[in-house]
Amino acid sequence: MGEPHETLLEVRDLRTYFRGEEGVAKAVDGVSLTLRAGETLGLVGESGCGKSVTALSILGLVPNPPGYIAGGEIRFAGRDLTQVSANELRGLRGNDIAMIFQEPMTALNPVLTVGEQIAETVRLHRGLGRDAARARAIEMLALVNIPSPEERVDAYPHQLSGGMRQRVMIAMAMSCDPRLLIADDPTTALDVTVQAQILELIETLQTERGTGVLLITHDLGVVAEVADRVAVMYAGKIVEVAPVDELYERPAHPYTVGLFRSLPDLAQHGERLHAIEGSVPSAFRYPTGCRYRTRCPLASELCASSEPPLASVATASGAHTVACHHADRVGEL
Amino acid sequence: MWAYILRRVLYNIPVYLGIIFLLMAALRVNDPIWGYLGKNASHEAYAAMEKSMGLDQPLLVQFWDFTSGLVTFEEVDGVSRWKAGLAESWSDKGRPVGDLVGDAVWPSLSITVPALVLTSLISITIAILSAYYRGRLPDKVMMVSAVLGMSISFLVYIIFGQYWGAYVLNERIGGEFFAIQGYKSDEPGWWVTYCLLPVLISTIVTMGYDTRFYRAVMVEETGRDYITTARAKGATKRKIMFVHMLKNAMIPIITRIMITLPFLVMGSLLLEVYFGIPGMGRALLQAITTLDFPVAQLLVALFAGLFLLTVILTDVFYALVDPRVRLQ
Q1: What percent of chain A has pLDDT over 70?
Q2: Does residue B44 lie within any of the structural domains?
Q3: How far is B227 from chain A (nearest CA, A)?
Q4: Which of B219, B226, B241 is best to mutate for the A interface (most A CBs within 10 A)?
Q5: Which residue in A18, A109, A159 has the most chain B C-beta atoms within 10 A of its own C-beta, making it the best mutation to test that interface?
Q6: How far apart are CA A318 and CA A321, in angstroms?
Q7: Strand order in the sheet with A180-184
Q8: Is B292 helix (H, G, I), strand (E, B) or coil?
Q9: Nearest CA to CA, how far is A37 from chain B (Å)?
Q10: Residue of B nearest to A109 (CA)
Q11: Which of B59, B70, B69, B65 is CA-nearest to residue B28?
Q12: Which residues of A fall below an 8 Å CB-CB distance to B?
């Protein structure tokens, strides 16, 4: 377990590209982020912005071919994960870095019992025997609040509900006490009530064990609930990073503002839902300069000619950065 | 489980009876007796033959006699014998068809079963590796070889196999390692001498088709989410391929293997003819060419039965390998 505030993961200028028929798709194109031990970092963005590919890159799970890491560093526990051997990376996966996926319906192997699937992880990394691994699986199922774990350990995934399956995924991910948990939209496929339970479970386990969590989601509500800091991603780049309260109170990027506007507001009954004009640019052909300028109400000539770097915004926390030439005018929106 | 099997069997009995009825009707569309005796046969000879085979009876009576014979045994000279097998062969005079068919089963099986086991093991392994290296060099080499292997005719393999594998090899070593032709099951080492070469040829011929099929199955599995989950757990490549993927691919694999089962018993016609192996395939071919009606009728009825049996077995295996298959 790391010291609090110790940097656990540092991604620097990560570029993950995919070779396609039309050329090279730059799914992740210069992403930098840091995550401290015990912290929850929300990674937010529309579908296709590269947030899931960022997660897969960290674990070295980008399908190759066609995908490959074209540049950048992923520093975890003193090592650059883009440079370590496949075997070394495999030893980290599931043990130090674990991942939860968005579709609990398909992410579990349908022909193995949930017990076998949890036991597999601990047998692999802890070298436990069959019985000890089974005991550990039961213990983990109890930890994620699955009723009668001694019976459920022999259940197949199809015999469990979606929420239960996601609990099993969490049990699997947490079974080796990882230092970093990557949760890729863990609640999209679930009912709202179950969503809240799952988020609460992740949060409890995290505070108990001091795990760093990278929470990937498109749901700003989820982020508000559990994240400490938020990184907003657009078209393969991070456009804004801020502590969660600051981001909600004073978003500094026009895209972030657009995302908040698109949230349905129950108080404003009967109004049309706001949508950001236009659509996400293709990863094969990003616009020059700022990638958001084609949809941005503040776009100017400067935005077309030069790409805005991530720069600090003067705030109380001093931890708020944004990549926008016109961040000072965002308040006008 | 047993109730499930019993139910599957009971469902298939009417299906089987229907098939037998259609087959019997079809075999009688062209009068088998005229066919056998020739158009110059006398009416007396015709009538005698018709009577001895019971072909003068209405079709329904014949149907009843035949189907009840399939499930009854009769005492003959103090020995209990299968009734459907007691009819006499027309071309092999006086020989009960049951003996004729029974003698042909073992030679067929001693070729087809090893061939199936060998082909399946090799092609599933190649398919897994190929799917794993999808799009990369090992995959391409294996798939080009598979297509190449498929594109060459079965006959070419047989003739070249007999020449190089048996004739030339025997000349070189000055003995008989592989026989060019023939079948004797009473010598020591008979299986290697008479069966191994046909088994190898059959394996090479079918491997291309099987590998391509299994590869497609495996490739589909490699794209599934649970594979990503297994990789994210840090599972080894071997474990992912042979436990996670293979277990999920069992349904199509079983289907493919089970479909070939009835053909196993019926033997491989070409191999049996070219290698002179007295199996079922050759027996059926002989029965057809010599217009041996009772043998042909029994063989097609057996084949239909085997087919249904494998359908039932397939369902049972599904239930065994996939926990999602309900027994209700």
Answers
A1: 96
A2: no
A3: 8
A4: B226
A5: A109
A6: 8
A7: A97-100, A180-184, A212-217, A40-44, A229-234, A237-243, A321-322, A311-312
A8: coil
A9: 20
A10: B226
A11: B59
A12: 59, 61, 65, 90-95, 98-99, 101, 103, 106-112, 120-121, 124-125, 156, 158, 169, 172
Count of C-beta atoms within a 10 Å radius of residue B326? 8
ipTM of the predicted structure? Answer: 0.86
A311: CB partners within 8 A, 6+ apart: A321, A322, A323, A327
Between CA A225 and CA B179 the distance in angstroms is 79
> Which residue from A65, A95, A107 is facing B229, i.e. has the nearest CB?
A107
The two tokens of residue B116 are: 């199936």
Q: Tell me the CA distances in angstroms from B91 to B36, B57, B72, B273, one per residue in order.
A: 9, 22, 25, 18
Q: How are beta strands A212-217 and A180-184 bridged, if at all?
A: parallel
pLDDT at A1 over 50: no
Residues of B in contact with A162 (CB under 8 A): none
Round to whole Å and give the CA distance between B257 and B252. Answer: 9
DSSP codes of every residue in B73-124: EEEETTEEEEGGG-SBPTTTTT-BHHHHHHHHHHHHHHHHHHHHHHHHHHHH
Parent domain of B148: 105-278
Q: How far apart are CA A82 and CA A79, in angstroms?
A: 9
Q: What kind and span of H or E run contains B202?
A: helix B197-222
Number of domains chain B is built from? 1
CA–CA distance, A32 with A28 (Å, rounded to integer): 10
How close is the nearest chain B Cα to the Cα of A258, in Å?
A: 32
Q: Measure Cα distances from B76 to A237, B88, B125 in Å.
A: 89, 14, 51
Query: pLDDT confidence of A73, banded at 50, 70, 90?
Result: very high
Is B274:B292 a contact under the CB 8 Å cutoff?
no
For A283-297, what is the mean pLDDT? Answer: 90
A-chain residues near B229 (CB < 8 A): 101, 107-109, 169, 172
Segments of chain B scoring below 70 in pLDDT: 267, 327-328
* Distance, C-alpha B207 to centroid of its chain: 16
In this complex, do B244 and A112 lie within 8 Å of one another by their Cβ atoms? yes
Residue B166 lies in a domain: yes
User: Is residue B210 domain-resident?
Assistant: yes
Pick from A160, A149, A145: which is nearest to A200 by CA?
A: A145
Average pLDDT rounded to a whole number, residues A182-203: 86
CATH number, domain containing residue B249: 1.10.3720.10
**CB-based contact A93 B234, cutoff 8 Å:** yes
Q: Give the confidence band of A268 by pLDDT, cuts at 50, 70, 90.
A: low
Closest among B215, B219, B245 to B230, alpha carbons compared: B245
Q: Comparing A208 with A273, which gets the higher pLDDT?
A: A208
Instruction: Give the 3-state secondary structure of residue B304.
Output: helix
Residue B174 lies in a domain: yes
Structure tokens at A172: 């699997």
Distance CA A19, CA A22 (A): 8
| Beta strand residue intervals within chain A, DSSP E | 7-20, 23-36, 40-44, 67-76, 79-80, 97-100, 180-184, 212-217, 229-234, 237-243, 311-312, 321-322
SS3 A185: coil
Residue B28, token pair as written in the block = 């009688």
